[in-house]
Amino acid sequence: MVQQITRGIKISVVTTFEGSFYKNYKMQYAFGYTITIENQSKDSVQLNARHWEILDALNNIEIVSGEGVIGKKPVLKPGESHTYTSGCLLTSPFGAMQGHYSMVNFTTTKKFQVTIPTFKLSAPFAIN
């Protein structure tokens, strides 16, 4: 598990290897990740957007940005958390992801970014 706290928002990430398959004559490696966003601050916050940088073993970078997470824009009161699971495909058996969430503090109405710590994606058979 990888964890990081930014401005009182704790991000925890657990990854899984889901398998491999051929798509468009290329081998694809499927990875899942479960993220828990925990509000350890004194203010209510809302997650509005996400930004990902997905790297494969050859340092190819895919940028993914969008609203919310899996169709939701969770509001977290102090002490609350939100957990979701998603995934990605790589063309290599290992890589990494990193990024940030764009959030708003309901008390101050200020927008801020929460860092998603870099986490590794690796197929068990590819680990040395």
From TrEMBL:
Enumerate the PANTHER family for this protein. Answer: F-BOX ONLY PROTEIN 3 (PTHR14289), POLYMERASE DELTA-INTERACTING PROTEIN 2 (PTHR14289:SF16)
Q: What protein name applies here? A: Co2+/Mg2+ efflux protein ApaG
Q: What Pfam family is a match for this entry?
A: DUF525
Specify the superkingdom: Bacteria
Give the UniProt record's GO annotations in the biological process aspect: error-free translesion synthesis
| Domain spans labelled ApaG | 3-128
